[in-house]
């Protein structure tokens, strides 16, 4: 089945902020509960070691996603100190400050808008996009890759959804259960969250709906491979593209690094 770039609520500017924040909290709670990104962390860690990365630029960071789990894993495994910088076109400063306080690792953030299609020239470090690539159409993904190649920068994608019947069915039937399990593990308690997920569970329904659409929007490894070949015809980059998996979760990944590092 071909990729379908259909409507998602979370993409809409008109979605009320209280609902958007609750949706973000549900996703982060589920990430943590299921350790969804755990299969790909060893591969990214190896990439970081091989490229001698000292700073990660977490683009399109939203509410931070699995950054605490990711940063904690790197803290345990990496000999060098890694600095993680969060940025987004619509930065969630309150959330970033909370992550900075709670994290046992080096996390900072940009407090101004950062557009992934127009990155500041002074931005240094490996560019990382987690669970956001499926929000972009193919020409936009190609631009993100092309800009990285033009700037001779490392680039990493991590996507926890796949365009498969199994993933679609898992989200349809299993995600609602894990969402509710995750809700009651989120601290501190918020009346807003209880209202939108239990009393009037609109956000729970929206989260499952967006998850189903995300599977239809997801890119297959061969599609990323085709994009990489298109924007890097001279093969100046070394690309690693595939799916990391455990019995419970799968993560599609792309990692690109210049064959001739920036001097």
TrEMBL record:
Keyword field contains Transmembrane: yes
Organism domain of life: Bacteria
Membrane-spanning segments: 167-187, 193-213
The entry's keywords: Membrane, Transmembrane, Transmembrane helix
Protein name listed in UniProt: Class I SAM-dependent methyltransferase
Organism: Uabimicrobium amorphum
Source species taxonomy: Bacteria, Pseudomonadati, Planctomycetota, Candidatus Uabimicrobiia, Candidatus Uabimicrobiales
